[in-house]
Specification:
The protein is α+β, with helices and mostly antiparallel strands. The protein is 35% helix and 21% strand. It is built from seven helices and eleven strands. A four-stranded antiparallel β-sheet has the order 1-8-3-6. Strands 2-7-4-5 form a four-stranded antiparallel β-sheet. The protein starts with 25 loop residues before the first strand and ends with a helix.
């Protein structure tokens, strides 16, 4: 459901340079809550996220913002149009992006076929993630959406060591992205922790305890409690308070 990540290791400053152009790709650091680009900015560059998390949003006709995706290391930003950026891109955490002049991309791909293949695969992953999000919004229950979202973020973070990963986005951003109320997201996160399916070791650090159960739920199955299920963890008052602060 998130914009698919996957680091593009071949994208180096040397490989991203046009034979006749010294401008090439360069790194740019963006502080949390600052913008990589705004809606309607000229699309002079495309961006590859080197580290950190960003959110993509679009302003609706009534002036409200709608979160349309999240991206982490390896994701490509700015391919959705030719002339201007249709979405805004705001850093959730400190972010490093590699900027590639848009008019250089074709020449770069001609020089580096391997890089062109990686870019094509990445675009395909992002398109598949967008289609999955479109289907989920209309058909999944709140529990299914939350389970799918947590599994997606865990996979993007390569949460192989005990299922632990950072969940840096605010609950309000999650609610907008999933098409749920803020109160529903907070309630479901608390419920998942109370039933022992996940563990919040801090405000923004999550560990998936019952991955098989969440996978079954995400696919439309009913969560069946196993006899060997770990004891449910009751959220602490400090954790509940932290979640309320994060909603603001």
């Amino acid at each position: 459901m998130c914009i698919a990540g996957g680091r593009i290791d071949a994208l180096t400053a040397q490989a991203s340079r046009r034979p006749d152009d010294r401008r090439g790709a360069h790194l740019r650091k963006v502080l949390a809550h600052d913008h990589v680009f705004y809606e309607s900015d000229d699309r002079d560059c495309i961006f590859v996220v080197e580290s950190g998390w960003v959110k993509l949003y679009r302003t609706l006709i009534d002036g409200q913002r709608q979160v349309v995706g999240f991206a982490n290391a390896g994701s490509i930003l700015g391919l959705e149009s030719e002339d201007i950026h249709l979405n805004g891109c705001e850093a959730i955490t400190p972010v490093t992006v590699r900027c590639i002049p848009a008019n250089s991309l074709a020449d770069i791909c001609l020089v580096d076929i391997k890089l062109a293949q990686q870019l094509l695969r990445q675009v395909g992953r992002q398109l598949g993630a967008a289609q999955a999000q479109l289907a989920a919004i209309g058909t999944q229950s709140a529990e299914q959406k939350m389970a799918t979202f947590l599994l997606s973020v865990a996979d993007l973070c390569d949460a192989t060591q005990g299922g632990a990963f950072d969940l840096p986005m605010r609950r309000g951003d999650m609610a907008e992205f999933l098409g749920l109320r803020l109160e529903t997201v907070s309630r479901k996160m608390t419920e998942f922790q109370r039933r022992g399916w996940i563990e919040m070791t801090s405000l923004y650090h999550c560990r998936i305890v019952r991955r098989a159960l969440l996978q079954k739920m995400a696919q439309g199955g009913e969560p069946e409690e196993e006899r060997s299920a770990p004891r449910a963890v009751r959220p602490t008052p400090q954790m509940d308070l932290g979640w309320k602060i994060a909603q603001c």
